[in-house]
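Listing S7. Sequence submitted for prediction.
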Amino acid sequence: MLAAEPWSRQICDEAYRWLRQRLSVYARPDVRLLIRTGHWRLQPIDKAREALLYQIPFDTIGPEIFRDMRRADEMRIGARLLFQRLPELLEKLTTAGIELLYDGKPLKPSRWDCSVQVERGDQEGTGIDWFEIRPEIRCDGVALEEAEWRTALRQGGLIDSERGLRVLDGHSLERLRAILDLTGEAQADRDTARIVRVPRLQIFDWLALRKQGIAVSLPAEDEAVLSRLLGFTRIAARPLPKRLHATLRPYQREGYAWLAFLYEHRFGACLADDMGLGKTLQAICLLAAIEEGRIKASIGVKGPHLVVVPTSLLFNWEQELARFAPGLKVHVYSGSKRTLDAEDGEIVLTTYGLVRRDIDRLERTTFHVILFDEAQAVKNILAGTTGAVRRLRWRFSIALTGTPLENHVGEYFSVIDLCLPGLLGDYDRFKADLKRVQGSALERLLGRTRPFILRRTKTEILHDLPPKIESEVFLDLTERQKALYQQTVAQIRSTIDEAYRTKTSGQAQFIALTAILKLRQVCLSPCLLTNRTDEPSPKLNFLVERLQVLLDEGHSALVFSQFTSFLDLVQESCAQHALPHHRLDGSTAATARKTRVAAFQDGEQPGVFFLSLKAGGQGLNLIKATYVFHLDPWWNPAVENQASDRAHRIGQQRTVSIVRILMRHSIEEKMMALKQRKLDLYEAVMAGAVRGAGQGLLTKADFDYLLSPSAG
């Protein structure tokens, strides 16, 4: 209290002398006059022990224990706070040898035993769809009714029974709260232990209770299955299909065995290996093994398989199936005269766009296995294509994606719910939980997915893959660019501020992202805004000079941009300098994609391949290239890495150089800093350690940062 007021030195000295005098008087030996059995008696006062009566409540509850104190032996505290701190208070007082009474009754610490019995539900169809959970709580060996332990929990661990007043220790209290969190609210008209029905895919929430020392007992068969799933290393190898035309690497054999295990036990799978590790091959291996009967299928499971891919990968999948499993019969469901006439075990290959267009026809067929490649294509849970693919029917599904999460955890829900419907519950509930739940509750929510996601990185697996060297080249804006840049900043800042004042958060974010496209175009070339052909572009000049040197040295290169209008300028400049090149973007027809990829990859001379990030950033094998240029940065590093891995993947024998061309003191420089946040989010979710996962792509504060003045 002395330090809280700006008192003079004289007042502080006087206060110090007063306190010292009072404490010296208090420290003198003293006695208390007591009467016992009719006799007067003087008893020495243990003042140090009496001080504990104040110190322990203060340390446990805080200074509010002394608020409104009217007598020296009276402390006041609200019932809610008391019950919260009661176990800790009792433990400290008991350790000090001080008895605590409640309503005149002595309180005693009690450690409770918690256990959970899991039994199979009634079998439906070909397997078990849910479990029956029976929690059992015992106090000093005596089983409690549900109403008793729930009441004790509401009262902070205090229970008044014929066995006396008991208080749970802190550890037991946490275990009891964990069980309550999973069982939900009690039924008011029932006192006996309630049976909790749990969907089969959510049993892992209950198994996680073992980490808190709670015994969870399952039927032996289910225990064996779930133990193997939780411990991936214990999944037994599966025989490879005899007619597979490929030699699988050890990690690919493990991935195939993992897929087979999930298939045999009617789960679902998300194979999230890094780009270039052969997710397609592992999935084809599973389909071939099912066709040959190398993997045990559930009784009665029939129907054709369906492979759904982005349009740009249709020809790639057709080639891969013919190359690795020529014995499989493949129907390409595409073109104006497309028909669905596949038999059991045959493969139907189609695109997300066609599923959306023909869902009324496709949903009438129950497919054996559905494989969703580049599953992030349906990351928006509210999009029409996402809704369409969820109307498909299947026995087993696999999501293949190197980027199950790009911008926020809501996209992660969309991908996981695609291959494991219901695992994360209802989307609206999931979204609400993400906004208000942190720590262990959110960790448990996302922890459900870990047994069904397999992710290996190239760093961990491919020790024989050549190095990937990444570098950033910073160029200076021209004087004309600087003036146009500042003018554009002034224009769009007011637009963004107005949007966040008058629109919803989602609408404002869309308006802001659209507005800053102008700044990004200025960084590429002023002529994208002014339409003046004489506008110089430092990026364009630098790129063409580098490409000339690289082609002369025998290197091929990939050039990525999100702006096809800038690719037009680059392509025109390369044509003027007679640089051999090819191009692929969203406007390229499916048949032309196949031809252009083959022309670049199989050509005898070095060349350049211009690709839009969206159309060419996934699924393609372009290992002829040893240089990758990114002309404009993107928010999420996972998207850029996916594009770079078109060249840095299995089969690449030479070092791959990744070059980002950026303009100094511009929005591009600041975007690089924001990218780290997306990388942290992605790695946190994939590692299962979410640290306050963000909900949106960018916030108002992010836009303010992007538009703030740059040094220089």
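Caption to Listing S7: primary sequence and predicted structure tokens for the chain studied. The chain has a mean pLDDT of 77. The chain is about 45% helix and 20% strand.
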